[in-house]
Write a structure and sequence with these properties.
This is Glycosyl transferase family 1 domain-containing protein. The protein is α/β, with parallel strands linked by helices and 349 residues long. The protein has helices at residues 23-34, 74-82, 104-116, 124-137, 140-145, 184-195, 208-211, 214-220, 234-242, 258-265, 276-279, 293-305, 307-317, 322-329, 332-347, and strands at residues 2-6, 39-41, 46-47, 52-54, 64-68, 89-94, 119-121, 148-150, 170-173, 201-206, 225-229, 246-248, 269-273, 289-290. α3 packs across α4 and α6 packs across α12 (293-305). The protein is globular, with a radius of gyration of 21 Å. The relative contact order is 0.11.
């Protein structure tokens, strides 16, 4: 059986590579690696570097499983494949925060798609939310038969670079978007208070769609802040993390939080809001959670002025080695093995 990966946001550059460093593009590259010889569903036939791009209408449904990251379009994918085969094979991959789909129609579409087609989620929390939506929006016979599995996405351990401590502590805005859910104003309010107490350099690497926004321009005007585009390569990305001291997370919700996990693995001290999505990423005794902006300020000051002591606290919270704890629970290899196993279980491939 062949594998086709569908993500409407995927862009293939002139060299034939899946372009971009956002979560969607990264996951497309992962899936292409997990399933060698798979194709990418796209607007027109062309050859990529190690894969082909084909329109959905050209996919042979008789011997192809379509893994769709556009979960709300699952029924449309099924109908298109049904035109040329009796039993289309469709699998959902839920990799985003379900709270982003707040409209009742969207939530009903999500629930029906995940009830009809086997669904793989990027974290236990996302899988539980999907299950709740299926139960709330579909009839009992469908909900009872829903097949939903999950695994943490994880990171590639070999990408971690040796630490390069900067002369002035670097505080990272740990997101690539300035959307309301990320609460960039709270981030700015806290770091403005911190910079009055101790020297820091704030860095924000943003998706091009947010790079020229009013919020980005306001931040870039601070003499202690740098706002720029995403790094050109994964190597540059990990090298930048290796010289980052701390990050301040302010998002109200996340489906998983791979960027935070990667930063933690690189030795960055993470200051988190006391929310379920953040607690799901770290050991139970993780010491850097805040409930108020004032607490966030105090924790961030500690992170940039007594960084070594903070890292020792992280090791203690993990029972001896924080990086080893992260590697054991956020493992890219485990993700690959898990999604392969589910494809074989659900579709016999």
């Amino acid at each position: 059986m062949k594998i086709a990966i569908r993500y409407s946001g995927a862009l293939v550059d002139h060299e034939g590579h899946v372009a971009g460093h956002d979560a969607g593009a990264t996951l497309v590259r992962r899936l292409l690696r997990v399933f060698p010889g798979s194709t990418l569903v796209g607007p027109g036939p062309r050859h990529g570097e190690g894969f082909d791009v084909v329109p959905l209408e050209f996919v042979d449904g008789e011997d192809t499983l379509v893994i769709t990251m556009d979960v709300l379009d699952g029924m449309d994918v099924w109908r298109t494949l049904k035109a040329s085969c009796d039993e289309p094979r469709v699998m959902n991959f839920v990799w985003w925060n379900t709270s982003e789909r707040s409209h009742p129609v969207e939530r009903a579409m999500l629930g029906l798609s995940c009830a009809l087609f086997p669904t793989f989620a990027n974290s236990e929390r996302t899988a539980n939310e999907v299950r709740e939506i299926v139960n709330a929006t579909t009839i009992q016979p469908l909900a009872e038969k829903a097949r939903i599995a999950w695994v943490n996405l994880g990171f590639r351990h070999e990408h971690v670079q040796p630490r390069q401590e900067p002369p002035v502590p670097v505080v990272l805005y740990p997101a690539i978007y300035l959307s309301d859910r990320k609460q960039p104003q709270l981030f700015l309010d806290v770091v403005e208070r911190v910079v009055k107490r101790t020297p820091i350099r704030v860095e924000a690497r943003l998706h091009e769609s947010h790079l020229v926004s009013d919020k980005a321009m306001r931040l870039s005007r601070r003499e202690w802040a740098w706002v720029g585009p995403l790094t050109a390569s994964r190597e540059d990305y990990w090298q930048a993390l290796a010289r980052t001291t701390a990050f301040l997370a302010t998002a109200t919700d996340e489906s998983y939080g791979l960027a935070y996990v990667e930063a933690l693995a690189a030795g960055v001290v993470g200051v988190f809001p006391d929310r379920p999505w953040a607690r799901a990423l770290v050991p139970e005794g993780y010491p850097f959670f805040y409930r108020t902006p004032a607490e966030a300020e105090e924790l961030l000051v500690r992170a940039v002025t007594d960084t070594a002591a903070c890292r020792r606290e992280l090791d203690a919270a993990a029972g001896g080695g924080f990086l080893e704890w992260l590697k054991a629970r956020h493992n890219d290899d485990v993700f690959e093995q898990a999604i392969e196993a589910r494809v074989k279980e659900w579709f016999g491939a």
